[in-house]
Amino acid sequence: MKKLNIAVAGVGNRAKSGVIPAVLSGDKFTINTLCDVSEENLKAVSGLFERAPVCTGDYTKVLADPDIDGVVVITPNYLHAQMAAAALKAGKPAYLEKPIGINVQDCKVVCDTAKETGVPLMVGMQLRYNNVFNKMKELLTQGYIGALRIINYTQFREPLRDGWDNWRKDKSKSGGSILEVSVHHLDLFHWFSEGAEVKIFALGGGDVIKNETGMLDNILFSLEYDNGVRADIEAILFAKDGNHPRNGMYLFGSGGYMTVKGNSIIVTRMSGETETVAVEAADSTAAALDGFYEYIVNGKKPMITPEDGFRAVAAGLAAERSIETGKAVRLSEIMI
Ligand SMILES: NC(=O)c1ccc[n+]([C@@H]2O[C@H](COP(=O)([O-])OP(=O)(O)OC[C@H]3O[C@@H](n4cnc5c(N)ncnc54)[C@H](O)[C@@H]3O)[C@@H](O)[C@H]2O)c1
Questions:
Q1: pLDDT digits (tens, 9 = 90+) for 228-242
Q2: Of 135, 214, 290, 316, which sees the most CB atoms within 10 A?
């Protein structure tokens, strides 16, 4: 198998604890360059490698390097769109962490540049590559619980971390808590529901963790898709840790419901009969990166497109607008 040389741009926490270990555990990529503006963070991740990669603070050098086959962009959210678009224009395939941008303009730049250049762009919303959610989608398609009616997701998790230069807690840089956290679940909901248009009503506030820039620490979303599927998310971002017993994903259908327990899916039919579908545990980031490889080498389209990334951001922006206005907002009002 041909190994590809990649550069990782942005080597903070997500790179160090998620993406770089996932790449190193596989056999598809060699990370030959690390790019970051923080010397300290470059030093901190260099220790993960047997053979030291090239370290640079200059992204333009990375894009000009003919030995690099692709880039993985893991920088703060406000830099995503411009860095991904620059990579595509330089002919470098890009794996771009979520969200693809923090506003509609950003998302359009990423989607349009991907279309115009034809260079592979994969969005790092790896939950579609999570074995459990993937199996849920398969069971849904097979009609295991009849027609999907309601999706419910509850998340009671620890507060957002600081990150480099405190970008994450500054709404003008992160896009807000919804784009930083709930964008993953909004994407899963679109995927499960297969709805095109969606109406979103949301309530939320920053009531426990005070933040002057408008970061929310609790959000309640209600969604109604044009195909009749309804959904809700409770995102409570001020818990002590992320292991609250109420946390979970439920899919309710006309013939029963399913939920997740560890690495299993529990299906309960209307008759009361239950079935446990065990799923092999696997690293979803590693699986998503395999998808990125397949896209570059074999042209196989990944499970998530730039447009899916745009829809997830737009749903988040619709929720933010709904919280501000007290009115329901449609996706099509945002994606204009
Ligand atoms: N997919 C997931 O499950 C998941 C999980 C966590 C974080 N993320 C995403 O990963 C990204 C990074 O999050 P994090 O927690 O690692 O943040 P972080 O602040 O720990 O790391 C960001 C890094 O980017 C570097 N950086 C800043 N400007 C740069 C530039 N111009 N060029 C190169 N490097 C630059 C910083 O020095 C820092 O090392 C965010 O977009 C976040 O939303 C995704």
A1: 999 999 999 999 888
A2: 316
